C-alpha cells in the first residue's frame, strides 16, 4: 500500500464527520483504526445481565451480534473505499484474529440487574 491508499482508508474509517460519522444506535458502537497494514475494528455494546450466571450466554449472544455488525461495517467500508478510489481499486481484508471481553460496570447488592460492556476487536490484514 502506498500513501494514497492509506489516506483513502483513513478517510473511509474517519468517524468524526461525513458519511462515516452517522450513528445508527445508542447502545452499540463500531470504530476502526489502521496501524501499518493492520486494520482493527472495535465493536462495543452495553448489555444488561439478570445475574452473573447469565454472563456466558450474554457474551455468546453479543458476539453473534457483534460479528453481524462488523461484517456489515466491513461491507460498507469496502464499498465506500471503492467510491473514494474512483471505482478503479478495491480494499481487500483478510481476518487474522479476534478478541472479546465482558466488563461489568454497574452492580448493586440491592438490585440483581448488572450492566456490562461487551467488546469485540477483530483484526484484519489490509491490502489494495
Explain what the structure shows.
By secondary structure, the chain is an alpha+beta fold. It has one domain: Translation Initiation Factor IF3 (2-Layer Sandwich), CATH 3.30.110. 32% of the residues lie in helices and 42% in strands. It has a four-stranded antiparallel beta sheet with strand order 1-2-4-3. β3 (92-108) and β4 form a beta hairpin. α1 crosses α2 (55-84). The longest helix is centred in the middle third of the chain and has 30 residues, at 55-84. The radius of gyration is 17 Å and the shape is elongated. The model has no long low-confidence stretch (mean pLDDT 89).
Total number of distinct structural domains = 1
Beta-strand percentage range? 35-45%
Q: Please state the overall shape, judged from the principal axes of the Cα atoms.
A: elongated
Parts with pLDDT < 50 across at least 5 consecutive residues = none
Spatial ordering of strands, largest sheet = 1-2-4-3
- The first-level CATH class is given as Alpha Beta
Q: What's the SSE blueprint?
A:
Elements: H1 3-13, E1 28-35, E2 38-49, H2 55-84, E3 92-108, E4 111-127
Antiparallel strand pairs: 1-2, 2-4, 3-4
Helix pairs in contact: 1-2
Task: Give a quick precis of the structure.
The chain is 32% helix and 42% strand.
Keywords for this entry:
128 residues, alpha+beta, 2 helices, 32% helix
